[in-house]
């Protein structure tokens, strides 16, 4: 486990190692897809005068708020749990100790209100983490400790969205006489629950109880499963340990189900591997092979992993970096805009966690130091920061514009110096959103495309029509040659292999370079990341007469006709995607700059009720009457999203109140540039 008392003993040596790792991670950063919003403070307990260091040598009055974890509730609210000190600790007060506190946000994390506090008088509570069951019940697991005497992992439940809590069960425990469970410690810590496919609740945790057994294990990761919603727990299952190595300390477990159907468990390995982060996988979530798994590079201490809906994995740790994997952990690349690493520097931001909070949006919650590195004199507060990233295309729209981004470097295919000349060098360059980095895909038949540079209007081609590996890629005027045709094959995780028709060789970056200006070439297929490219939509290419799914940027829910109704006046709302025809819309270009959207189920048009020009007027479906309330102007707004403006009123298609809930109403409203008015149009 990775606890503050151990940080203090490691001192300057550990800090030096951490700084080295942070700088190395920055130098090796391979992608920067995320743009981070300003931080929001979730909770910040003010400092107060205490009676002295507590049983774990922490000053309660300087502690603040730490170890934040987030749960997005079914009703759209966000619930945060974290640890606080508001007393002198049980060393000086028999009813004292760390407490857990819950805060709620009803505005997508922009403001927070304290909702409840959980205490176990005379014990330290910490390491809280939550899940919500199908019936709405919230379970919270935490550690409850009297150091070197009693260690428990307790579960509390709430039936009212976190407003009040009651004790439910104990997952595991180890208790004895005062001081009997120290030297070495024999505790249990850091529970992390996950709801399995069959509805059972599993919990991973760090376990020192086997340290004096034979063979001895300083710490392992254990798993228990509850078949009755957390009321009781089954026998211990070993998930991660190091056979034959009593010094290895796998800990801080977090796990998730991946989109390929397997489960991933991430954890730090202290004692023998400097708390570097490893992972294991399981086919069913309850059967684990043991050992210490596979290293995740450039992540260290207290990891947290999330499965994103675009099939990527995202992970964060005490390095302050966010890494992504497009291939379920086989390879990882580091985002070069770490959300908290530059706030104060050093080692002050701890126990980060990461979540998908909307379409192309993630959030990182962290315990941020309240001044330069010294948590013992200034403490922490809990902060959250939202990040947005570009959508990755899994289907190419002819006529649409894309950035072509190298997977290995995160840099874009670019025409050198924006040249308009035939034969100008094509290279990779860091993102600047300028026309030399924007390419139009134009279908040429047989699955091939012409790839046209927006700046020059010239085509991507293999220089001289060479069929030799290593031949450079340039731009040239359209000459109708196969050397200017390319096939883009989706290979998973939003990545494409782009293959030249004439040579059959792949678009590649010379020597796998990550440098600005590295030349694009063609090369034999080798499966390496310099031959894998993301196609990031940057401008529209609406295919008239095609069917689309419209997904709201704020909620991630799709535009739907309520109840699949066929009637005139049926309400239009947002709903979870279920693949039905009532959630699909045929978009037709009317030739005057406007579009008609026809529901694929009912054959009726997207319409503003009574042709109203008032903000807040309802949006419905109605039979086609050819009038402006049924016509919409579609404008690309960047990052894969569009604004739809009614041709009659000039108001934008909007989710009322920015609702995150299924059934949230769709209306028209004054354009405010916010995510409830931005829509992803996905060709079906």
Automatic annotation (TrEMBL):
Residues 399-536, 545-682 form the Ricin B lectin domain. Keywords: Signal. SUPFAM superfamilies: Ricin B-like lectins, Sialidases. Residues 1-27 form the signal peptide. PROSITE patterns: RICIN_B_LECTIN. Coiled coil: none annotated. The keyword Signal applies. CDD domains: beta-trefoil_Ricin-like, Sialidase_non-viral. Pfam families: RicinB_lectin_2. Gene3D superfamilies: 2.120.10.10, 2.80.10.50. PANTHER family: BNR/ASP-BOX REPEAT DOMAIN PROTEIN (AFU_ORTHOLOGUE AFUA_7G06430)-RELATED (PTHR38792), BNR_ASP-BOX REPEAT DOMAIN PROTEIN (AFU_ORTHOLOGUE AFUA_7G06430)-RELATED (PTHR38792:SF3). This is Ricin B lectin domain-containing protein.
